[in-house]
Design a protein that fits this description.
The chain is mainly alpha-helical. Helices cover 55% and strands 8% of the residues.
């Protein structure tokens, strides 16, 4: 991390450590302390979070290209681009309801998955802003 004229700059390594730490919070272990309002995660959701981690790290690598440092404001802009519209997310665990059809369950799982990915991106944003 470097500060110059009131602007904070981060290296690719620092940024990847932040992303990895936030992804590690999502675990199926009963002893895991999940981020914020997340009350349920299963192996499928963890797989989706790992895929999003790869996408985010690729986006960050593309952003850095030949640069050693990038400003926090540019990184925040990149992270905001990964957020899903709130209308397509849901924090409710409706997919666990046994009376739903498989199509309804899939629809609710997708909404909850997008909610989890938004929580991941929000956690990354909070970590960047607190640097």
């Amino acid at each position: 991390m470097m500060r110059l004229n009131g602007t904070t700059y981060l290296t690719y390594t620092e940024m990847s450590v932040i992303v990895n730490k936030q992804v590690a919070k999502f675990s199926t272990s009963q002893h895991a302390i999940l981020p914020r309002d997340v009350s349920y995660v299963d192996a499928e959701f963890i797989g989706c979070i790992k895929e999003k981690e790869k996408d985010i790290l690729l986006g960050i690598a593309f952003l850095y290209k030949d640069e050693e440092y990038v400003t926090v404001s540019v990184l925040v802009g990149l992270m905001v681009s990964y957020l899903y519209d709130v209308a397509y997310t849901s924090a409710e665990l409706r997919f666990l309801n046994k009376s739903l059809t498989s199509l309804q369950v899939d629809n609710h799982r997708k909404k909850y998955e997008k909610y989890l990915l938004n929580v991941l991106v929000d956690e990354i944003l909070d970590s960047i802003r607190n640097k």
